[in-house]
Predict the 3D structure of the following.
Amino acid sequence: MGGDGGDMTRLCGIETEYGIVVEGLGANDWIAESIGVVRAHPGKAVGGWNYRGEDPRRDMRGFTVQMLSTNPDDAQFDTPGSNTMSREEERSDRILTNGARFYNDHGHPEYATPECRSLRDLVAHDRAGEHIALASAQKRAQERGLEVTLYKNNTDFHGASYGTHEAYLMKREVPTDTLIQALLPFFATRPIYAGAGKCGIENDSSAPSATTFQLSQRADYFSVEASVDTLHNRPIVNTRDEPHAAPRRYRRLHVICGDANMSEYATALKIGTTSLVLSLLEEGLTAPVRLLDPVRAIKKVSRDRTLKVQVERQGGPALTAIEVQRIYLQEADMRLRGRDEDTDWTLTEWAAVLDALETDPLTLADRLDWVAKFKLLDAFREEEGLQWNDSYMQSLDLAYHNIDPEQGLYYGLEQAGEMRRLVSDSHIQAAMSCPPSDTRAFLRGMFVERFSSSVRTIGWNGVAFQHNGADLLFDMNTLVEENVRVLNEEFGSLETLDAVVAAIKRRPSDWL
């Protein structure tokens, strides 16, 4: 899958907020320790993020909200009398040579991959983020003389949930309501293969938490169908409008309802299927099915390991999550099969996974996180006579997501050859320092690697830098098409900033 000439044409990325635990410290120390981990990044990087064009309050439905919802529980972690930091100090952004962004986000070290055009590249860069975050945590631990542990998951089992967000560049011409209505059933049922698994239930005292193993870590935390919020009153479809590209032509779909996947296969399938659904919408498809209550549905789906529960829909009989997913699969297979290698891989694996889920889900223990975790933990639970929401079971759940290969349970499965791999260790190693060659991330990484002393700020869509005493901005808003690969080859051969500026000036005037 992937490879030259076989990649999806859509830019995609993953933003992972890592859970952090520091030996002997509590939640009110999270922000300081998260900042410490980011600043301990041992590799080459530049600071200074350009927030131009970013407004998380802007809604794709055509309005801007006055304020975002905040979680009232967060106040308990504020340290009385603590100094107020500037946004720049608190974020402590590090822009890396591979085009990625590493920063503190509300007390979590967050790694945002560079824009990728192929599933294989995106998986490699997502895994590279684990290695980069781990190296930073290990250096911070040496500085502090305390153990620092990072988890690639979505809950601390004490009421806090942190996100693994996905980003997809798509055509703005798709009507907003069409986008929302088509995505609600898809996202509500996607956990059957994209879920990371979870012991017990949170935020619902009426649910049978003790006896429940969930498919999704995030499903407990969604309460509305669509909004711009991410920290509280979370929506299944996030409507934030920050395109990071030419705004009249594109929007960036910001997905917050997904889990943090350890499995390479699950990551690729999650991204691949979602990208294909967006392609269907760009071709004019409207919602092929509508659910009566998507918020209730995502919780029902997550809490039913048998995969037999049905969700009510409008204008027809209730369907299982597998049946809902098959509706989208059939449309995609009919309209998109043969388009490129990544598309065909996704369609083939999507069908194979749905078939296996229908017959024997445990056969997917080498591919899907929730199945692998259930198989690993259930035998121990039964032997010890424990309930799913027992604190010991939850500690094992956390251990599955520990990104230290010496301690993480997922890594133990991988090292034993029990998890299906999609990328090589050498590809992951290269992704730690090298950006994709076929996206604008290459140009961002080039500035960090070669001209870091001249860089003032960097954003997703541009680099502000100094040249011969003048402040310049290399605007990359339009550099999102496949032909950027040719531009990257040209710029990659330039050895001086003078040559780069001259090359930019030979191009459209809006680049500089």
